[in-house]
Amino acid sequence: MTRAPGAGAPTIRLLLADDHPVVRAGLRAVLDAEPDFEIVAEAATAEAAVEAAAAQGPEGVDVVLMDLQFGPGMHGAAATAAITAREDAPRVLVLTTYDTDADILAAVEAGAAGYLLKDAPPEELAAAVRTAASGRSALAPAVANRLMDRMRTPGEALSRRELEVLRLVKDGLSNQRISKELFLSQATVKSHLVHIYAKLGVDSRTAAVAAATSRGLIRDRP
Amino acid sequence: MTRAPGAGAPTIRLLLADDHPVVRAGLRAVLDAEPDFEIVAEAATAEAAVEAAAAQGPEGVDVVLMDLQFGPGMHGAAATAAITAREDAPRVLVLTTYDTDADILAAVEAGAAGYLLKDAPPEELAAAVRTAASGRSALAPAVANRLMDRMRTPGEALSRRELEVLRLVKDGLSNQRISKELFLSQATVKSHLVHIYAKLGVDSRTAAVAAATSRGLIRDRP
DNA sequence: CCGGCGCTCAACCTTTCGGTTGACGTTCGG
DNA sequence: CCGAACGTCAACCGAAAGGTTGAGCGCCGG
């Protein structure tokens, strides 16, 4: 936080990691307007972001603005984990379009210092960067609410195994195929499904997929 | 196309319609660099875009850069239809993140002059704007390929009714609930499903949803 | 004008799924 | 140390979904 000298307003060095040129240009335009921000690098891939974030000394990065969805290759969450694993690592602020449970938890577990949505107004963005640079956590209100909901209703949380089954169900596999995929008996798969239905308040596999998708427990693409 | 005077490089007036302030700033930064572009307005909602695109005379808009996904309220495709329905309407260039069949077809049917993906490089963006302003169509390569695929395999295209059924299946409804929803008998619903399975090459409702989603025939959110 | 396609429905059968009950071992925290 | 939660499996039954055959209607285009 105090890599740069200067008394009242230490400069915050930023790295922008997003695969969309337009978004990078937008972030640059928005954040360059802040006098205490300095954008020292951009990265169009998660791999490039990991590399760029490793710079030390006077070229070091204070805060990384990290998208989660890159095209092919490494995912933003993996890049976040790689960056924060190092010592004296910069803070990583995740900036993405979606606010699903899966994404948020993955980012938080990867060591993200904050989670913002791309529809955030510029002021909120700048405030979050300063919050992250100061070592505190920055969560968008919508994200914070979702985390609170999750805390409040722990019974509804699907277990690891149940999520695994549900993902295969979402991919269109039958119980028999799932049992082979996970080296289980069909009875076990059905048992998991019954528990899933109870937790989600539904009574069929398709409804479970719909409910889990709308609640952000699972994602469609990966 | 010749609203503005000037011989060699007539100015192209642009309207940016996107609900993300960062994206608007990025588009502005990228497009303001082009000497023959002038951004005359921005809109954060689809409704505002329809209104702003209605300006006539010297304040008129030549090309609208339209996002498809706005938060609540009107959809970008609906706004595109509303804008292009008028006489002497500006060209609408759809600029979105996804390249699903459903989105592309909706945009083309709404009268869009082009379809670009947000990960396009700035040069491609500027070129598409000029193409659209000149009255021609501008399709991103990925989008064009998808349309070609669709032309090549017309047998796989789901009918209107089949898509309607499939959407309800995706929402987790049983055949009985679907039949009531659409005022059909269960026999008809099953008949549609059999045809859907054949066209998609699957053999269950969940697999049909998975296949249709991955091919972009249906979308998760709306 | 007729063939094809989409939409509708019925009857029947097989397979899968949904739901229950009951059971056993493990792991973790009070 | 023991209950709670998770994960595993079996047997069973009714309900739903998958699959087939067959058939009637309306519309569009060759």
UniProtKB/TrEMBL annotation, chains A, B:
Record-linked SUPFAM superfamilies: C-terminal effector domain of the bipartite response regulators, CheY-like
Keyword Membrane part of the UniProt annotation: no
Domain HTH luxR-type: residue ranges: 151-216
One Pfam family in the UniProt entry: GerE
GO molecular function list: DNA binding
Keywords: DNA-binding, Phosphoprotein, Transcription, Transcription regulation
Listed InterPro entries: CheY-like_superfamily, NreC/VraR/RcsB-like_REC, Sig_transdc_resp-reg_C-effctor, Sig_transdc_resp-reg_receiver, Tscrpt_reg_LuxR_C, WalR-like
SMART domains: HTH_LUXR, REC
Record's keyword annotation contains Phosphoprotein: yes
Domain Response regulatory residues, every copy: 13-133
Modified residues (4-aspartylphosphate): D67
Protein name as it appears in the record: DNA-binding response regulator
Species name: Streptomyces alfalfae
